[in-house]
Amino acid sequence: MTLEVASERIVRKPWGRTDLRPGSEHGHDGAPIGEIWFQRAEARAPEPLLLLKLLFTDEILSIQVHPDDTFAKVIGLPRGKTEAWYILSAEPGAKIAMGLKRALTAPQLRAAIGDGTVPDLIHWQAVRPDDAFLVRAGTIHAIGAGLVVAEVQQRSDATFRLFDYGRGRELNLDGAVGAATAGPSEPQPAAERLTEARLVVARSPYFVFEQIDLPSNSHWEIDAASETWILLLAGDANFDLIAARSGEAVYIERQRVRLRAGAVGIKGLMAYVASEPVATRLLSRNGELRGVAIAQVPERAAVGVRSTLSDRSQGAGK
C-alpha cells in the first residue's frame, strides 16, 4: 500500500522556458526547462506504469510519433506510448498539431521526412485552457509554443522524430514510418461527466484521465485499487495525514485514502490505470452533491509549481 507526495524532476529541453515564474524560481541559469516529471518519492520504488508531467513551451516541439505496443515489442522496447494532454495555460494563438491533413502512403511519408516537408502536412489547431486531447500511439503530433500542458502517458521513451525545426537532433526515419498512422487523426472522444466533481477528459486502454473539482472543506474517499495520480492545480488538501498543495502531485496505490479539500476547494487532475472510468475511485462523503455549487478557486498561475524542485538529469523524448 502506498500514499506519498511525489518527487519532482526537472528535464531540460531546447524548446523549454528559462523563467517559470511565478510558479517556480528555477530556470535563471539560462538553460531552458521543458518538463517537470512527477515520480515516486523513493528512488528505489518500483517504476509506475504511468508518467505524469508538466510541459512548458517557448518554441514548437519536434514533430514526432510514438509506437503502439505491438510495434514497440517488435523493435525490442517493452511497451508503446499513448498519452493525453490537458491544456493549463495558452498564450494567444497557441496551437497543437494532431495527425496529417491527408492520408499518405509509407513511401510518401518517408519522402516528406527526407525532404523536410512534413511541417506542411500536419494539421494544426488552436487551443485554450481546459482543452484536453488523447494522443493515440501512431498519431503524428506536435505541441506549439506558448503552452503549459499537463500530460499523462504510458511510461515509455519510445519517440520517433520526423522534423526538429533546425535543432540538430537525430531524426528517426525508419521508426517513424513504421510506427505512424500516416493520415488524419481519429476524432477526439467527448468529455464524459461522471459526477458534479468528476469529468473524464481522456481515456485509453491504459489510463483514465479526469478533471476534478471539489468544494471547499469537503470530504472524499479515494479507493486506489490501481496506480492513481492526483495533481493539484489550485487549492490544498489533506490525504489522510499527508498535506499537499497547488503544484504538487500525490501517488496512491492499493490503498483507501480519505481526502479533505482545503478552504478554497480543489481544482485538479486525476489519472489512474484502468481502461474505463472507475466509479469508486473518488467518492463523496458529504452526501449528494446535487445543487451544491463547486467552489471557485484562484487562477493557476503557472499551476503553482513549487520552488523546491530538485534538478536532475534530462530525459528522452520530445
Q: Concise description?
A:
The chain has 318 residues and is mainly β.
Which sequence of SSEs, written as H and E, runs from N to C? EEEEEHEEHEEEEEHEEEEEEEEEEEE
CATH architecture of the largest domain: Sandwich
Number of strands: 24
Question: Structural class per helix/strand content?
Answer: mainly beta
How would a textbook summarize the main sheet?
7 strands, antiparallel
Annotated CATH homologous superfamily of the largest domain: Jelly Rolls
Beta-strand percent range: 35-45%
Low-confidence stretches: 288-315
Overall outline: globular
Spatial order of strands in the largest sheet: 1-20-17-22-15-14-13
Distance between the ends = 33 Å
Total number of domains: 2
CATH topology of the largest domain: Jelly Rolls
Highest-level CATH class of the largest domain: Mainly Beta
The tally of helices reads 3
Helix-residue proportion: under 10%
